[in-house]
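Teaching assistant here, posting this on the class forum so everyone can see the example we discussed in section. The complex has two components, and the goal was to see what a joint structure prediction looks like when all of them are supplied at once.
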Amino acid sequence: KQEVTQIPAALSVPEGENLVLNCSFTDSAIYNLQWFRQDPGKGLTSLLLIQSSQREQTSGRLNASLDKSSGRSTLYIAASQPGDSATYLCAVRGGTASKLTFGTGTRLQVTL
Amino acid sequence: GAVVSQHPSWVICKSGTSVKIECRSLDFQATTMFWYRQFPKQSLMLMATSNEGSKATYEQGVEKDKFLINHASLTLSTLTVTSAHPEDSSFYICSASGQGIRSGANVLTFGAGSRLTVL
């Protein structure tokens, strides 16, 4: 059974700092890995999707890496802003029609 | 783009009543729907997976007679919480997987969620 863990559970940083969120998964046989953002009481917004054959994906200030063999992914956020404050979830997919298994989430707060 | 419309966004009901949550896919055919539950400060837990026209597959520990899922068309799936109790209070999110009507590309999109409070 796939298990996904995210560290840290919560993080508070001052505006402008670069930061890294970590995600680890127990079964390396994944189809893809996805990072989401969730604002309080809201649904999910997809940030980055990395296929199993890829090593990283970039979108603006966000960069996600994937090391399938070690069961790890990181989300790097450059020059953080207060608007980045949210919960970040990573999720892995085992196959094309397989369900997503979500991580425990990291609650990020970027302070002024 | 592919959008999932989830309704209602929040609902308050009395204990013992039933509540229906709808998810509609816009601009794509949702061949598979996933229903998740999220308790405060916890991650999403998959409740069930349904394919259009078939019975839903429930995750271990989820009561299928309590959480009724209907996926009768490629654009609509419903989750009915029957005889709701306070412990059913949670945030319910649907996710739809399918092909874009115009693009033909595979999509996976989440609804905005429904907050259920049972008094």
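For the discussion questions: Chain B is about 0% helix and 60% strand. The two ends of chain B are 37 Å apart (CA to CA). Think about how each of these relates to the inputs above.
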